Every structure is written in structure tokens, then in C-alpha cells.
């Protein structure tokens, strides 16, 4: 089977590219090494999103779900848990090799983001032992936290927003190793106006329990304090696996794909968009990635169909 377009990555950029490709009636396949939705679905499904146009406030999981459903409704073929490995030339077309099979296509859009992400750990004793037993890296079902003592660790938007989501139903505290947050000012104001206990210039040094977390030891100004805790949610960033770019045959800039204003790479028939690309003034936001995806999809269409107006 020959596809018109294969999109590598099913985050906001890849899904948007698929939606636009489908409006042009391009036979489109989207593949992703994990699950569709990207980081929004896999790492921060409960994270509040308040800067995506058209939504005063939504959560990341809901936005990701809408993008996935939209792409599917437009007849995009979607393959999850299939990793792209190499892109070869074949009879005037491209051959995408994955860990499961290979596909022939006229064009490719690379929208892999920053690669496969895993949450960073705090490295405290007990953290690994109690993972899933009171230690979490994304917000668990909020109903399970009702009336519990919950500690959040981190100082960015995600940590603060998750604490805000549960502070009305659980006894909530927020631990950050610095004197001030790195989160957006509007979110910091909401935290400061809430009932969340803020423990600044502190760090978690041990997590205790039996078959489940029962307490957490924190260190502040050299002093140790043990607090009874039912759940600790760690959100101090993510670490990404190095992107394997050697198999794409495109020019890179500091590990990212170089593109022009049309989202064209150095390789004929290969386009890119989202956090995987580099250009002067690049701003990593969901809405920007979606805009780049629309451009990449339109460029791919012009390459594949060669319409008279594009000449």
C-alpha cells in the first residue's frame, strides 16, 4: 500500500498535521511510539490548560482526547506503540521502517516532539519502593485522594496546577526547593490565595511506609521534619531519551531538525513541525506546534499534488 503521507508522532503537532492532511484528501497514516496524545495524555492528563485559544480552561487529557478524536473522525489511520526507526528512499518514494513493519509513502512529516519522556525522580530513599503505592508522577484519580493528606513536589506550572485541583478535597501541601516558584504569575497567585500549605526552600529526603506511604521526611534549613502523608505527587520535570535522528537523513541543529519557513527539511519529501524542529525565534507552545503542523501539512500537499497555484 502506498500512502500519500505518513506522520511520525501523535502529539498535538502530529494530530493537527493529520487533520489538515485529511481536509486535502491525502491518504494519511499517523504512528506513535507510545499512545496518541503526546505528553498531554501520557504525563499531564490532569494539567490545566488556559492558554489554548477557544478554551478558557481545559485539562491536558481532555484536549489530547479531542485532538485524537478529531483526527480519527477525519479518517486518519492511527497506529500506537509502533516506533519509527529509519527512513529510506524507494523507487522515487520514501520507505518508513518501524519496529513492526515498513510503509511506502510519498511524503513524511516528523512531529516526534522532544522524544520519549520519563518523569524525573527526586532520588530519595523509599521513592522506588513506594512507586504506585503512594508515590506518583502524575495526578491519580482525584476521588482516591478525598480526605487524604497529599504532598506535591515541584515549583513549575504542572505541580502547582495539580495541587490546585485537589486542595478543596484533600489536605494539601506543596514542597519546593527554592524560595520562589518558576510557574506563571497567574498560577502562583491562585496558589497563594488558596488553602495549600507552601513549604519553600525545602526538599524531600526520605519517604516512609509499610505497604503504602505513611510519612515523608523533609529538610528545611538543615532541619529534618517527618510529616504524615498518604500520597506524594512528584513533578520536577522530565528527562527525555536521546532522539535517534541518524535514520532520518535530515540536517540537524543542536540535535533538532532544521526547517525553513515552509517546514521543509533538507531532505526532499520530508517535513517537520513541533518541538522537534529548530529555527530562530522558536517558541515551544501547543498552539505554535499546531500552527507549524498546518504549514507542514500544506507544504506536504503541494509537494505531493503539485497544484497549479503552488507553482
Largest β sheet strand count, sense and barrel closure: 7 strands, mixed
* Count, helices: 6
Write the element-wise H/E pattern from the N-terminal end onward: EHEHEEHEEEEEEEHEHEEEEEEEEEEH
General form: elongated
Q: Would you write up a description of this structure?
A:
The protein is α/β, with parallel strands linked by helices and 311 residues long. The protein has 2 domains: 2-117 and 239-310, 3-Layer(bba) Sandwich (FAD/NAD(P)-binding domain), CATH 3.50.50; 121-236, FAD/NAD(P)-binding domain (3-Layer(bba) Sandwich). 22% of the residues lie in helices and 31% in strands. The chain has helices at 12-23, 39-42, 60-73, 157-166, 185-192, 286-305, and strands at residues 2-8, 28-31, 48-49, 58-59, 77-79, 84-90, 93-98, 102-110, 117-119, 135-136, 149-153, 171-175, 197-199, 202-209, 213-220, 223-228, 231-234, 238-240, 252-253, 256-258, 270-272, 277-278. Strands 1, 2, 5, 6, 7, 8 and 21 form a 7-stranded mixed beta sheet that branches. Strands 10-17-11-12-13 form a 5-stranded parallel beta sheet, covered by helices on one side. The protein is elongated and about 70 Å long.
